[in-house]
Each structure stands twice: as structure tokens, then as C-alpha cells.
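Aim 2 progress update. The chain analyzed this quarter is reproduced below.
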Amino acid sequence: MARERLQKILSAAGVASRRECEHVILDGRVRVNGKQVLSLPVLVDPAADRITLDGKPLVPERKSYYVLHKPKGVHCTNFDPDQRRRAVDLLAGVKERLFPVGRLDADSTGLLLMTNDGELAERVAHPRYGVPKTYRAHVGGRITKEDLAMLHEGVWLAEGKASVSQARIIHAGRDRSVVEVTLREGRNREVRRVLAKLSHPVRKLIRIQIGPISLRGLAAGEYRRLTSAEIKALRDAGGDVPSRQTHGRRRPPKRTKVRPRVAPPASGGTADARRAPAPKKGTARTTTRFAKKHTQRRPRRR
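Predicted C-alpha cells:
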């Protein structure tokens, strides 16, 4: 198993936040293989190293998985100095220290996964795994088939070209429309920004599904524990990691070197004698311009 920072291991075991775990370590309360740790950073292997806290073996926290219907005005963060309402505050009675997988801005609502499994969280949130996330957007104006075609083709944002995996019209009115879009990327506020580019500002945004997990049966503010079958299906949703991905950015075309053409040998001469001389080092002339200058004959003046 890969070695990780000691404070991360303590935090994953439910001791405290990573920042607070640093103070616990510096206070001399933690030992690794019998040796007291008084400085940071320290890398440990939880599968091979023996870690104790206050003389007792560190017991890993049980992995927990929940799905939450996030209401509007709730923030997806575990640390908020402004004391605003957080997603973890809605999980009353859950003892494990959980964190949200991915983000939903405060104005958006819908499905939010909560867990303490960092490996699964990365697999779901990282765009290289391509786990589909479906949103239902209430927008201004009439959504047309041409708009759907542009969504599939891709819309240029500041960080690159963004495209949707699927899109379908739920309702198309004169002043308001509803559209469902499925993404396999994870850019910040991507749905809102892409639809705004098409002159359809988002008035309401709900995430209704992540991989095989849907929002069905949960009212705003409610949550439930995932079943073992749902957890397995969620792990398998990403599939294999592609070897190379550009994440919406096009790779620039490869440049091909242009070799200078050699003039045909004149009568009585050889090809080597008529070949253009090599350019000096440090010159600013390109190879093509240099070759043209020394291989084309100028007409004689009469």
C-alpha cells in the first residue's frame, strides 16, 4: 500500500480534522512502531506500520456511504468559518466523519454523495473515470434541437471545450424550458456556464443522478445509506481509466520539418557543387526561405 501522511491517516480514522490531527501529533500523543512522533511531515503505511494514539492502537473508521438530497442554501464544505449551513449538518445521527463527493453550489439542489472513502470519492469525482452525472436545468427561453446539437458538439469555455454526453428536452416553452444534460466531466459550474453561452440562463438546477444512484424517493433534506449492491455498482460505473485523455482540450497538430530543395546540377557540374551553402549559426532565416534564395536563378539583364 502507498505511504500517506500521518495526519491524513488519523483524520480518516475519525480522530479529528487534518489540521487538528497535526496538533495531536506535535503534542507527542502519536507513536509509529513504538517511536514517538514530534515533527512533521511523516509518511506511514497503515497496512504495515503500527500506529498508536495515547497508547491505544489506531482503529480505522468504518467506511460509510450515504446519498443526500441537498436543499438550496446548503454548502458543500466541512469547514466554514462563516458558520453557514453545511451538508454534513443534515446527517443527524451519523457518527462517522463524512465529506461530500464533488460539489454543488449553494443555489443548486439535488443528489449529493457523502462518504469517508477517499478512493471511491476520487473515482466518482475525477473526470478521467467518466462517471456520468445527470442534471435537470430550468432555463430561460425556448430550448431547440439546434441547441442540443451545439451541446453535443461542444461549447468553448475559458479552460477549453466542454460538451455533454447526453441531452434531451423535457419541456420547451416560449419563456421557460426544462432540459436534462449528462456530463462526464467536472468543471466548476459547468452546466450553468455552458447553457449561459447558448443564451439560456439557468434559473433552477437539480442533480438527479450520479452513475447508477438516483434521487428517487428522497425529499429535500432527506438522506439514506447506500446498499452494498449500490456501492459496487458505483465503483464499476467509471470503468477502466483511459490511457490518454485531453479533457475537452484539442491537442495541437504535430509540426513537420520542411527540408530545403536542392537545385538540379548544371551542365558540367555536380549536384554537390550546385547545392546551397549551409546557413550560419544564429541566423534568423528559416530553412525554407534560405533554400529558395540560393536555389532560384535570377534572369540576366540585357
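The chain has eight helices and 17 strands. The mean pLDDT is 84. These observations will guide the mutagenesis experiments scheduled for the next reporting period.
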